[in-house]
Design a protein that fits this description.
With about 475 residues, the chain is an alpha/beta fold. About 35% of the residues lie in helices and about 15% in strands.
Length: about 475
């Protein structure tokens, strides 16, 4: 560990740790990033998990929020090796009858494909597309008075509703199913208030920016961020697990890209009784069970739209998805779980040996679950792609404990850094004038446990760094 003093030290090199570090370094401060693992990246890591030559994204895979993020928009990451590729279709949603709904780049094409729900889709998602450029900074930030209050109010009227209520705007199972797959990214019961928000945002962002795939794997995003940070004079040290704040070099500010449970363990002795109590009450959501496959050929989906999509949502009808998510939230395991699947190698040949392919998938399970969901997930893929099991060359599975062991921020397998329901949407991790400040001067939290929550967008770290600059520099 470096012995010199720094203006700021950032613990953790996930997207938010790196975004905080870059924001502070751009201001002219001296910044050190400390990472516990051998490689940087947090949820942005790629490894040969199955067979040699097959590159699998260990955590995040498709990155619509990165391309939509105001923080990423200001960075010349293409000059630091980042190349994004796009599938012809952003996301597809197959049904048992062999058809599929699809999120196309075009709002009009998507809406028209939904038949009698064309106008309902345009009204819900089309209006969000038009408003997004003006409201994005308010949506992806802490609770403040918005710059465009009328537009934010219009967005909030739908976004704050339960996804199950918004589903009633549609008449066809096709439109409802597509909506269900989008909203299930929220990792909570679709009857929860604000569960509609992520479905609206992901759909709108898909139309505006697409759902890009980083060439070579998600690790390339982390590498580009680190390269940019270092080019400005920033420093990174890996292989340093921080168990106590006293291990860190002297600095004016320390920013933690960790969740409340870890923050309490590392620096809890510095906090007030009230703040510690608030962190102890912080709630984590459902976990994930994840599988990576090495394949002999592309997944033989029945619906042609699925063979052109980077992401495929496997869940059939809205009701089936909603029932599965509720089952997992209630502490049980769905027989037919909602499965998020990505097939990056169809559009990025660097992911697998010539002629071979990779696939990435997970389903939601109760937090801390040890149940093996391999068969349930593979049965869901086989359901919409008969013959899938015959093309599997090798696989790697991770239950919630293994997910957390790989990335300690994923408590109980929760990849969102805590449930993002109405009770923790803006008050994560505690009810404070600034969610990024702790009760101890100079100590901040910049992880996905702060607004706006999970996803590779860097906005949690960006806002935390802005709070540091305002308070201390």
């Amino acid at each position: 560990m470096s012995k010199k003093d720094f203006d700021a030290v950032v613990v953790g090199s996930g997207p938010n740790g790196l975004s905080a570090a870059i924001t502070l370094q751009k201001f002219g401060l001296s910044v050190l990033v400390v990472e516990g693992k051998e490689t940087i990246g947090g949820g942005m890591r790629t490894a040969e998990l199955t067979l040699p030559g097959f590159k699998h994204d260990v955590c995040s895979a498709i990155h619509p929020m990165a391309i939509a993020s105001p923080f990423f928009a200001d960075l010349p990451l293409n000059e630091h090796g980042l190349e994004l590729v796009y599938a012809p279709i952003e996301a597809a949603h197959p049904f048992d009858d062999g058809t599929a709904a699809a999120l196309y780049r075009s709002v009009e094409k998507t809406a028209k494909s939904l038949g009698q729900d064309e106008e309902a889709y345009k009204k819900l998602i089309g209006s969000a597309v038009e408003s997004w450029p003006k409201i994005v900074k308010d949506v992806l930030g802490p609770l403040t008075f918005p710059k465009h209050p009328v537009l934010m109010a219009q967005f909030g009227l739908d976004a704050m509703q339960p996804a199950s209520w918004v589903a009633k705007k549609f008449q066809t199972e096709k439109a409802k199913g597509l909506w269900g797959g989008m909203t299930a990214h929220s990792i909570q019961p679709l009857t929860n208030w604000s569960s509609a928000a992520i479905g609206i945002v992901l759909s709108a962002v898909g139309h505006l920016h697409g759902w890009p795939i980083p060439k070579g794997g998600s690790q390339s995003i982390a590498n580009a961020l680190a390269s940019y940070f270092i080019s400005m004079g920033g420093e990174i040290e890996t292989n340093h697990w921080i168990k106590s704040i006293d291990q860190l070099p002297s600095s004016t500010a320390v920013l933690f890209d960790v969740t409340p449970k870890q923050l309490l363990a590392i620096a809890g002795q510095k906090f007030s009784g009230l703040y510690k109590w608030q962190l102890e009450k912080y709630r984590y959501g459902m976990g994930v069970f994840k599988i990576d496959w090495a394949l002999s050929e592309p997944i033989p989906f029945t619906a042609p739209e699925c063979r052109e999509a980077g992401t495929v949502h496997l869940g059939n009808t809205f009701n089936e998805i909603a029932n599965g998510e509720q089952t997992s939230s209630d502490g049980s395991h769905a027989e037919k779980p909602f499965v998020l699947l990505s097939q990056q190698s169809l559009f990025d040949s660097s992911r697998a040996p010539k002629g071979k392919h990779t696939a990435w998938a997970y389903c939601h399970v109760p937090n801390g679950s040890k149940v093996d969901m391999t068969a349930a997930i593979e049965n869901q893929v086989e359901r919409f792609a008969p013959g899938f099991k015959d093309i599997i060359l090798a696989k790697n599975t991770m239950n919630t404990s293994e997910v957390e062991a790989y990335n300690p921020n994923y408590i109980g397998g929760d990849i969102n850094g805590g449930i993002i329901d109405i009770g923790q949407l803006f008050t994560r991790p505690a009810l404070r004038t600034s969610p990024y400040r702790t009760s101890a001067k100079g100590i901040y939290i910049c992880s996905s446990s702060t607004p706006p929550g999970g996803g590779v967008h860097g906005m949690c770290g960006y806002h935390a760094a802005k709070a540091v600059l305002k308070d201390l520099f």
